[in-house]
Write a sequence for this structure.
């Protein structure tokens, strides 16, 4: 067996032995990244941000406002509190 073949055999064996641990660590990292992404999001969103993040359109958002979702007006701009949107979605099972 050549040195190259021996190295390839050892590398493959090591991968097989440790692949479960590697995949487990990767999954844990993905979950942690998701958690960090959720906690680092902006609290107040403009309409376009609401559309993009929650996958809804203008008509749906206006319907939610008509049913009680609070709009926050600052000068001539409207914002929505992320927590209010999430609460509304949970209460209305959207």
């Amino acid at each position: 067996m050549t040195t190259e073949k021996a190295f390839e055999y050892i590398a493959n064996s090591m991968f097989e032995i440790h692949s479960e641990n590697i995949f487990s660590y990767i999954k844990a990292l993905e979950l942690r990244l998701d958690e960090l992404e959720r906690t680092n999001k902006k609290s107040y969103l403009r309409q376009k941000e609401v559309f993009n993040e929650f996958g809804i359109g203008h008509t749906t958002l206006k319907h939610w406002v008509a049913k009680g979702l609070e709009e926050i007006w600052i000068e001539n701009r409207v914002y929505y509190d992320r927590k209010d949107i999430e609460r509304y979605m949970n209460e209305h099972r959207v």
